[in-house]
Amino acid sequence: MDDVQEEKAAQSKPKEVKLKVRPTVFIAIGGSGKEILLRLRRRILNADWNGKRLQDLSEFPIANFLYFDLDTTDAKESDKSAKTDPFADTVVFQTGEVDQRRLNHSLYTRELDRFRLIKEWWPKANVERIETPKGAGQFRPLSRLHFFSRADELKEIIRQKGKAVEASLTNEQALEALGLRQTQKDLRIVVVASVAGGTGSGSFLDMGYLLGTVFPEAETNLLLLLPSGFYMAGKEMVCANGYAALMELEYCMRHNKYVEKWADHQLEVVVEAPYKEVYLLDITNMAGEATRYTEDLYNMIADVLFEDFGSAEFAARKRSVAPNQQKHKTEYFRPELGETLGLK
Question: Are 265 and 278 in contact (CB under 8 A)?
Fold first, then answer.
């Protein structure tokens, strides 16, 4: 075969399409965040990556995961979709992906004068009745206290995970085998939580500031679930947590001071805002149409997160409209508050 024939043959072959990706660390805070990221992990394992199915998430080095919770129940047992999932053992968070520790709050609350950084925001409340192995009991300050107690360890865990996914970009052979190619070297960190409960609602802001401290140049995204999908857990408490968390979020995103530092030996936090982008998600849309099941919202968010990896067209479109949306985010927004919040 001469050179002309070889060139024609090469041109006739279909060009291999490589998905543009960027290194991403996904962090679930609390039960809702965990449910969503388990579904995302399931989608990654079930997907066709350049004709290949992954046997383990370690084969997908462009993404890394962390599940942070005060609830110390087993992640696999509490996964609501694991009962019918043959991939349950593979999808479940593995050693090194979970930070679930029991909090002995009495060590702090009985001698608050010793802990200046905690005393300045700790409420006057009796927390002895709350069984912390089962979570924060919808009491947001317990979650923040837990974060303060774990901040040093979390900082190092997050640094290692961020560096690991950044290092994966140098392994071009592994990326090409999956049909992937890098689009940006900048790290992206996605936090998924709910404002309705305790763990997520109480610590998502501190998590954002910690991320900005460890990786100042990273694109930090927050996906926050609103309260209406969790009314079955107690409407009054759920709405109260949601309202408080959203008020704090608004305060922080306007570059107001929220946290000095998490321990006396640390440097002062100088991050201006906890997140670069914030997405609020609900079971009801702007047209008033709603789904009855919170799991539908879990699946929708998992689909959106997966499309960033699985669809070059979706990811490119999302990035292209971001600058146009940015100008609207600097303006004040005063939505109408209807009967759902008890206002007319």
Answer: no
Look at residue 28 and give its three-state secondary structure: strand
- How far is C-alpha 325 from the geometric centre of its chain's CA atoms? 21
Q: Does residue 60 fall inside a structural domain? A: yes
- Lookup: tokens for 204: 């998502």
CA 163 to chain CA mean position, Å: 18
C-alpha to C-alpha distance for 259 and 271, rounded to whole angstroms = 10
Measure the CA–CA gap between 3 and 9, rounded to whole angstroms: 10
Looking up tokens 């570059």, which residue turns up?
A: 255
Answer yes or no: is pLDDT of 281 > 70. Answer: yes
Tell me, what's the pLDDT at 96? 93
Partners of 220 in the β-ladder: 189
Q: Residue 249 is encoded by which pair of tokens?
A: 């979020």
- Say yes or no to pLDDT of 173 above 50: yes
Give residue 232's pLDDT: 59
Q: What is the domain count for the chain?
A: 1
Per the CB < 8 A criterion, the answer to whether 225 and 279 are in contact is no
Q: How many CA atoms lie within 13 A of 176 on its CB side?
A: 5
pLDDT of residue 199: 86
Query: What mean pLDDT do residues 58-81 have?
Result: 75
Element at 136 (helix H, strand E): none
- State CA 266 to chain mean position distance: 25
Cβ 248 vs Cβ 205: under 8 Å: yes
- The domain of 153 spans 18-283+290-316
Does residue 107 belong to any structural domain of this protein? yes
Which of 94, 249, 76 shows the shortest CA–CA distance to 161? Answer: 94
